[in-house]
Write a structure and sequence with these properties.
Blueprint lengths: L6 E4 L48 H32 L2 E4 L2 E8 L7 E8 L2 E8 L7 H9 L11 E6 L5 E8 L15 H20 L2 E2 L8 E3 L7 E3 L6 E2 L11 E4 L16 E2 L5 E5 L3 H16 L9 H9 L14 H10 L10 H8 L9 H6 L5 E4 L4 E3 L2 H10 L1 H4 L1
Helix pairs in contact: 3-4, 4-6
Length: 416
């Protein structure tokens, strides 16, 4: 309309919530490894943290760096204000399901598939994801998200539908709460291993919740996890723009499904995503055989949350793939200043072979401080001749020292 207001040509589905009074997924409690709220808490090993030795920085260099950072921050602030003013002028209000929301500006995490607006109504703030013309979300995913509003582990999808722009063209939209805490990638975790593990616990609960509801996220990365508020105590998983639904067979296994031209984020994409079949000059087909790609992506997220994405600066996509597969001398840069227990988690999640990669079951064991073997193909090759019958009655035969250690850990009476 002439006043810039966008009006929907049809409303989204009823905003019904099937969640319980709490809805938050809680892992199984144990006697000693849970907090008062039932949340699993990992027991870190006592391996001393190795602090990096840094060269002393001159006062002049430090002052120059601070001045440069301040100038960049000021320039970014000015750009953000200009963008907000332009968006308010172009779209001063949005009418969604008969309610008029005021535009407060844009959000910096707008994507290549959509614009993200910050809206307000009755002193409450919301985030509107407005897809570009010609781009449609996965409606099956959106239906599941709406039904699970209030889960406490994934972002709430309050409604979705279509809007018509001034040219009469339709654009899909999603309305969500505005999470004021920002994304977890904005936080420096370096030096605070306990905080990193707390985020890992909540993030893995969110990923597993999606899988239980039949959603493969396919874009797990730090910028898609939001702190719900400024206390930074609680996170939710968001941005399901490229997610897919899947079904399981009678044995609980994912029934393989395919996608055409799947987007990916270079650092976080699992190795198996690159096993694509070329359909024609512009299209490729990717088959997903399980949910393990999400877990690999989160293992990479833990790496960058600790050491930053800068460690992969200048590494092209194919060199990155070789690092993830451990080909030749290429290896992922696992931190040396984290405890052995936390590094084990990252290594378990980033095993190149999906069938040997950790999933949620292994993660739960890790969180209860149980021993879980991490598959290492190089070590397996060295131990080809290793074979120890640990328990004939249980048919337990160890083919590596790590597997023997796991049997001994699980049955200490036999081990002694």
């Amino acid at each position: 309309m002439k006043d810039g207001t966008l009006r929907p040509n049809k409303k989204g589905p009823n905003n019904e919530s099937n969640s319980g009074p709490d809805g938050t997924l809680r892992p199984q409690k144990t006697n000693n490894e849970t907090g008062p709220d039932g949340t699993l808490r990992p027991m870190l090993t006592k391996t001393p943290v190795q602090k990096r030795v840094e060269e002393p920085e001159s006062e002049l260099a430090k002052a120059q760096a601070e001045a440069l950072a301040a100038a960049r921050a000021q320039a970014q602030k000015a750009r953000n204000k200009a963008m907000d003013d332009a968006l308010k002028l172009a779209h001063p209000t949005f009418v969604l399901s008969g309610k008029t929301y005021t535009t407060d500006g844009g959000l910096s995490n707008s994507t290549g598939e959509a614009e993200i607006f910050k809206l307000s109504l009755n002193n409450k703030y919301y985030a509107l994801k407005l897809y570009y013309v010609g781009i449609e979300p996965n409606y099956d995913v959106l239906q599941i998200l709406v039904k699970n509003t209030g889960s406490g582990v994934i972002s709430d999808t309050l409604e979705y539908g279509k809007l018509k722009n001034e040219e009469g063209k339709e654009r899909d939209y999603e309305l969500m709460p505005y999470y004021s805490g920002g994304v977890i990638s904005d936080i420096t975790f370096k030096g605070d291993e306990q905080a990193l593990c707390r985020v890992a616990l909540q993030a893995m609960l969110a990923i597993n919740f999606c899988h239980e509801k039949g959603i493969l996220h396919k874009d797990i990365k730090p910028s898609n996890f939001f702190f719900t508020d400024s206390s930074h105590d609680h996170i939710v998983l968001s941005d399901f723009g490229i997610s897919s639904t899947f079904k399981r067979d009678s044995k609980g296994k994912v029934i393989p499904f395919k996608n055409i031209n799947q987007n990916r984020t270079r650092i976080y994409a699992a190795p198996e995503i690159y096993n694509a079949i070329q359909i024609d000059s512009s299209r490729v087909e990717i088959e997903y055989r399980d949910e393990k790609s999400d877990f690999f992506s989160f293992g990479m997220a833990l790496l960058t949350l600790w050491n930053g994405e800068g460690q992969f600066k200048g590494v092209d996509e194919w060199a990155m793939l070789r690092m993830k597969k451990g080909e030749g001398d290429s290896k992922l840069p696992y931190p040396e200043d984290l405890s052995e227990n936390t590094v084990r988690l990252i290594k378990g999640l980033t095993v190149a072979d999906p069938s040997r990669r950790w999933g949620y079951t292994e993660f739960e064991k890790w969180a209860r401080n149980e021993y879980v073997e991490v598959y290492d193909p190089s070590a397996q090759n060295k131990d080809e001749g290793f074979k120890v019958v640990y328990s004939g009655s249980k048919n337990q035969v160890a083919h590596s020292p790590e597997e023997l250690a796991q049997y001994m850990f699980e049955d200490t009476d036999l081990a002694t």
